[in-house]
Design a protein that fits this description.
This protein is an alpha+beta fold and 119 residues long. Helix content is 50%, strand content 18%. It is built from six helices and four strands, in the order αβαβαββααα. The strands form two sheets. It has a two-stranded parallel ribbon. Helix 2 (41-58) links the parallel strand 1 (29-33) and strand 2. The longest helix is centred in the middle third of the chain and has 18 residues, at 41-58. The two termini are 30 Å apart.
Length: 119
């Protein structure tokens, strides 16, 4: 398995390798742009747990960009919802759901409620 070239790996495998490389450098700040986007559901949950564990053990600032609301809620202390390149609201997931600052935020969470129950 270690004899394969990076170009021979699947998208999900390449994503996991990139994530491992980023974590191995012991960064002070970690920027993650859709790190779980190409990973199948069972591995996605496992990797989500690894990201949470790494974050807690190293106590580092992590900026996690995702379009997957379930990932954001599971991993974030605070969530920044962006709309047209601007921050619409920055708050905890609980406050965003209970006290949305705009119709956009309210609709955003309503549209994903089914996915959140299934994820």
């Amino acid at each position: 398995q270690f004899k394969r070239k990076p170009s021979e790996l699947s998208g999900g495998q390449q994503q996991r390798v990139a994530l491992g490389r980023a974590m191995a450098t012991s960064p002070q700040i970690l920027l993650m742009d859709e790190p779980l986007s190409n990973i199948d559901p069972p591995n996605r949950l496992r990797m989500r747990g690894e990201i949470m564990k790494f974050h807690q053990e190293n106590k580092l600032t992590t900026i996690y960009v995702t379009h997957n609301l379930a990932d954001g809620i599971a991993l974030a202390d605070r969530i920044a919802v962006m709309r047209e390149g601007r921050f619409e609201q920055v708050d905890t997931a609980e406050n965003l759901m209970r006290q949305p600052g705009s119709d956009y935020i309210a609709d955003f969470f309503k549209a994903d409620q089914f996915k959140l129950r299934v994820s």
